[in-house]
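Submission sheet (multi-component)
Chains listed below:
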Amino acid sequence: MREKFYLTYPPVLVKEPILYLLTKKFNVVTNIRGANVSHDMGLLALEIEGAQEEIDQSVSWLREQGVTVEPIEKNVIE
Amino acid sequence: MSTITGLTCRECGQEYPIAPLHVCETCFGPLEVVYDYDSIRQQLTREVIESRPRSLWRYRELLPVSGEPTVGLHSGFTPLVKADRLAAYFGVKELYVKDDSVNHPTFSYKDRVVSVAISKAMEFGFDTVSCASTGNLANSVSAHAARAGLRCFIFIPADLEQGKIIGSTIYGPRAVGIRGNYDDVNRLCSEIADKYGWAFVNINIRPYYTEGAKTYGFEIAEQLGWRLPQHVIVPTAGGTILPKVAKAFEELKKVGLIEGSVRPKIYTAQAAGCAPVIHALHKGSDLIVPVKPNTIAKSIAIGNPADGYYVLRAVRDSGGWGEAVTDAEIVEGIQILARTEGIFTEPAGGTTVAVTKKLIEQGRIPRNESIVICITGNGYKTIEAVVNDVESPFEINARLQEFDELYRSLAPTTTPALGASELH
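Outcome: structure written.
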């Protein structure tokens, strides 16, 4: 499975190697397609590839760390 | 003859064919429709437009459909009200209200984008249309799908009040409540759009859907006698309408329907309880930090707007600005519009009115220039927002004497509309 996400990092996590830790912890392949990082926020367009369960656990873990994880479409509830 | 030539990525410029695609495979940027403006310039004149029925389809060459429109034949071409009493209240010279609270058939600007999205979905051969929504979008998709004879699935948060979905379920869609937070609902809908191959109007049909919002801008210009206003105030939720109003104004110049050098300044309006775009605008940042919404303005409570960045860019390019207002100011905005112009709008409209007031008071909008306020939804759908802020009926027995006494006790302190003393 491949899923596309937008990750938003709060200031406190901008300097943390979140993706490195993610790939050590879960059996997924990450592929950064776009990024915009400043001192107060990080924004990442990311593809995550792996088994559905691994992707789901990756998303849950990222959220536990304080990263906002959304589909690439962001808010689709209008 | 179709006037669109393909899709292009708004970020990296990669080109794509006309298809139900919405995200660039390379950089994940959003896709945008590309038009053949030279061809449009040859075909589309003011006379051609004015000879057509009064609907959004009178600008069909500037919309991403091929052939005759099939859906939303009565949508759009809503009134542009010259709002003299509201102008007097604000102390400004020339003010208009573009009133999509009376858009057909579901009373919000969404009837524009959905008309175009479902027309395009039918061209692509989809038999099922869908969306995730807590209100106006679901109403519109359900109604248009019914009229077009398409299957329809509506996704809503499971805890949404029943009353909120009747405006959709009356049209006969399958409504699915999803347990989980908004992030979960968003992700599931993206997955469903991907897996089931349905026309999810604001996901895989999004490049076409958003183009429908341009008709709001086209109509403003035509209804002003083919000229542009100097200031336009637009509410921002997902960020669809504001950049498209800006695009509409540019396109009208590009194809020769508008002359002159007026460049409207465009202002974004948000509720203080959900103002991610305003925060970025005021900070001078390009990055929109998602927020958890907390406002009565539910229809614009989108914490991480899909097109927020493009709102910022359009506002800055135009030389405009933006403001956020509190829920109390929003309710006041609803009341001011109702009591000066007889237009009952939802909290999104109250937000726009209140932000306009604030921008005028700040001196950002000059009092002697032309102003258009964009009203995008109807207040009859959100009665609960104002239920505690309107006067309750007086109760008397059916005797003239009792009414005489009541009337004497009321006058002159209570008036049903804003009194002369409150008007500048």
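Remark: The two ends of chain B are 52 Å apart (CA to CA).
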